[in-house]
DNA sequence: GATTCGTGGAG
DNA sequence: TCTCCAAGAAT
């Protein structure tokens, strides 16, 4: 290895101590529970987005026992708007599992953590390192980018084989001590210095060791590949408003927005009912063009319920549905 | 291995 | 507005 692991570790640790982030909410009075919650929330989600959710979550479910004892509706309500809702249900499952089967102790080793629902290879290593300060390898988007540039790793690192290769490379550079600080250092370097665009190479402690920097190819790594444009789907929803509130439907577990409360959805368009409004929404894998009908009849096998307006803040609703409803309740259309 | 799963920050 | 992509995991 051209770059000695001992040197790399020393650089990352020293840089983290001096320039890394130390004021994130989940870094204060660290407990395994805080680390678990934060790591699940941070999956594919930016730190800035997570912080207010994390604060509210800890206020509502201060420890793993309170989460285990919570009702699913409360859990989904607290997660609403954060996306990837299976994370919330898995976290709830995990809390029950840990409280009832593991005497409240969150597992410590990556292997044991992998048995936990919603915990994959990254999160297992992260919890081990951050919660217990024990050796845990982490490969996320930050680490992938940093190593891709440091060693000019070519090709698509997202394939199974290349990802395993990258994982083993990072593993060889992961120390057996100072695990928490090292893991934080990797993430902080990726998030604040080795950024996707306009990286701050002048401030990077690894500048002289970085192959991409030396070849002036930093912006070419990690190599990007074209993705096909997102398909567009249509959605048809019903908003039935009365003085008593609005009717919502709890969505089935096998749809987008599983088990959230949303406007009842029609399988087809309704050419009879008046159109109240439309909205567009972009998911990770398709675009939604939605039509909302006013007072359309619908039949459903799902649970439906009428909610008063002031109840809506306490239930888990998809972000775009909530936005649409708020717009039309605050500024009701008078075009009928 | 390819798909599915949300939402919003930032350029 | 459009694009990339974010402390990924499950199926």
Automatic annotation (TrEMBL):
The lineage of its organism: Bacteria, Pseudomonadati, Pseudomonadota, Gammaproteobacteria, Alteromonadales. It comes from the Bacteria. Coiled coil: none annotated. InterPro entries: A/G_AdeGlyc_MutY, DNA_glycosylase, Endonuclease3_FeS-loop_motif, HhH-GPD_domain, HhH_base_excis_C, HhH_motif, MIG/MutY, MutY_C. PANTHER family: ADENINE DNA GLYCOSYLASE. It holds the Pfam family HhH-GPD. The keyword DNA damage applies. Belongs to the Nth/MutY family. Adenine glycosylase active on G-A mispairs. MutY also corrects error-prone DNA synthesis past GO lesions which are due to the oxidatively damaged form of guanine: 7,8-dihydro-8-oxoguanine (8-oxo-dGTP). This is Adenine DNA glycosylase. The keyword 4Fe-4S applies. GO terms for molecular function: 4 iron, 4 sulfur cluster binding; 8-oxo-7,8-dihydroguanine DNA N-glycosylase activity; adenine/guanine mispair binding; metal ion binding; oxidized purine DNA binding; purine-specific mismatch base pair DNA N-glycosylase activity. It catalyses: Hydrolyzes free adenine bases from 7,8-dihydro-8-oxoguanine:adenine mismatched double-stranded DNA, leaving an apurinic site. It comes from Pseudidiomarina taiwanensis. Binds 1 [4Fe-4S] cluster. Gene3D superfamilies: Helix-hairpin-Helix base-excision DNA repair enzymes (C-terminal), Hypothetical protein, domain 2, Nucleoside Triphosphate Pyrophosphohydrolase. Residues 41-192 form the HhH-GPD domain. Its cofactor is [4Fe-4S] cluster. Keywords: 4Fe-4S, DNA damage, DNA repair, Glycosidase, Hydrolase, Iron, Iron-sulfur, Metal-binding. One of its GO terms (biological process) is base-excision repair. Its EC number is 3.2.2.31.
